[in-house]
Design brief:
Blueprint: E1 2-6, E2 10-16, E3 31-36, H1 38-48, E4 53-59, H2 61-73, E5 77-78, E6 81-82, E7 88-95, E8 99-104, H3 112-125, E9 131-134, H4 146-150
Parallel strand pairs: 1-4, 1-9, 2-7, 4-5, 4-6
Antiparallel strand pairs: 2-3, 7-8
Length: 151
Amino acid sequence: MIVTITPNPAVDITYQINQLTYDHVHRVNQVLKTAGGKGINVARVLKQLEENVGAMGFVGGALGNFIQAEIRKQGIKDLFMTIRGETRNCIAIIHDNGQQTEILESGPNILRREGDAFLDLYTKVIQEATLITISGSLPEGLDETFYETLL
């Protein structure tokens, strides 16, 4: 199994409007919501290539539940760890003939015990892994050496 790690996943929300105008109300006809984050995107492509793939990271709240449900629907093994905090949203506004404006939430604050529990889970998961990818931003609360620790 290939394991992708996305420490700070998000629900990616895309709005398309003709023109972005400041201090104006925009009505959106079509909204696209997907499980997002660099590692989840990698997992999605690997699954399309018919690989056995699992996705790990931290998820919490209703948005975390959404991510877990979406990846399971796509046939990706759910290895995410549930946390106290709420998973973030990332909003992309497509406007003015293809320009993109992004609004990215920073994400939850990972408690020390949650980080330690993730490392315990990771130690078990890597026993089944043939390849591991780690990508994306780190959420608050994790030490900047977290990726080094995983390696």
